[in-house]
Specification:
The chain is mainly α and about 180 residues long. The chain contains 8 helices and no strands. The radius of gyration is 20 Å and the shape is elongated. The protein starts with a helix and ends in a 7-residue tail after the last helix.
Length: about 180
């Protein structure tokens, strides 16, 4: 079994190195163009590429099959999703600092583990004060999703989501740390 695993890893590594060798520069340029298009910090291009390569490693068989079918366009699509995800995580960090205040991790960066840990810790602390639906809504909000996306996830109107979040923040204000 270990020889199968090592041959699988070798095949995966060759695939990723092949992508790196033949596509890295065009992928980087595409990431940089997308950053400009969406008005993102140019450093997001490097972060998105890192996430792309991480996905190539961890989701190797599925991504390789789709890459064979769709080519470089498939990698561009993954890259675009990663950039949008990073932006959402950046928004998430700002929301965490806004809602959680002093309990927000100072060393946290967009998408950093401590950011997710802070969200989990905060939600555990307030879970007795809110309903499951409110907890789920607040989690999506803190993770940086737009009201429209949260509305789609929860099958409700985006403006209803905004009102719920506003009311939740008012109701939880006595339980939040003072700035």
């Amino acid at each position: 079994m270990s020889t199968q695993k090592s041959s699988h890893e070798k095949e995966r590594d060759e695939f990723v190195l092949g992508i790196y060798g033949s596509c890295h520069k065009p992928l980087y340029l595409q990431a940089f163009r997308l950053c400009k298009k969406y008005g993102f910090d140019p450093s997001f291009a490097d972060d998105a590429l890192q996430e792309l390569y991480r996905k190539l490693l961890y989701k190797y068989p599925a991504i390789a099959a789709k890459y064979e079918k769709h080519g470089r366009a498939y990698l561009y699509k993954i890259l675009q999703r990663e950039l949008l995800s990073l932006k959402r995580k950046d928004k998430s960090l700002k929301r965490i600092c806004d809602v959680i205040g002093e309990r927000a991790p100072r060393e946290a960066k967009p998408g950093h583990y401590s950011t997710e840990e802070a969200i989990d810790s905060f939600l555990r602390d307030i879970e007795k004060l809110v309903s499951e639906e409110e907890l789920e809504t607040l989690r999506y909000y803190l993770e940086g999703y737009a009201m429209k996306e949260i509305g789609e996830f929860m099958a409700t109107n985006p403006s209803t989501v905004g009102v719920r979040i506003h009311r939740l923040r008012r109701r939880l204000e006595p339980h939040l740390p003072a700035d």
